[in-house]
TrEMBL record:
Protein name per UniProt: Protein sprouty homolog 1
Gene name as annotated: SPRY1
Residues of the signal peptide: none
InterPro entries with a match to the protein in the record: Sprouty, Sprouty_domain
Organism domain of life: Eukaryota
Cytoplasm is among the record's keywords: yes
Topology in membrane: Peripheral membrane protein
Location of the protein in the cell: Cytoplasm; Membrane
UniProt organism field: Podarcis muralis
Keywords, sorted A to Z: Cytoplasm, Developmental protein, Membrane
Family: Belongs to the sprouty family.
Amino acid sequence: MVEYSTCMCLVKGIFYHCSNDDEGDSYADNPCSCSQSHCWTRYLCMGAMALVLPCLLCYPPAKGCLKLCRGCYDRINRPGCRCKNSNTVYCKLESCPSRGQGKPS
């Protein structure tokens, strides 16, 4: 909803059609990223588009507000630890009951 209300979907569409990246990993997916190549070119292009589409100027505050609201919601409704780099814990064969034993009745 944030991308549609701030016209970011138009920017992504324009960047998608203007990119020459055939692998699918283009900067159209995240045009505001500084980690990809041609960062200043994208920001210059978005600045020029903001003259015609002033709703683009609302994208950074709207995205920040959304991130803040998600964080507050998660803190209230999902208490506990949520590690980003958690390892999956698997059951060892010795500690798990075998399939043939102990069928529930």
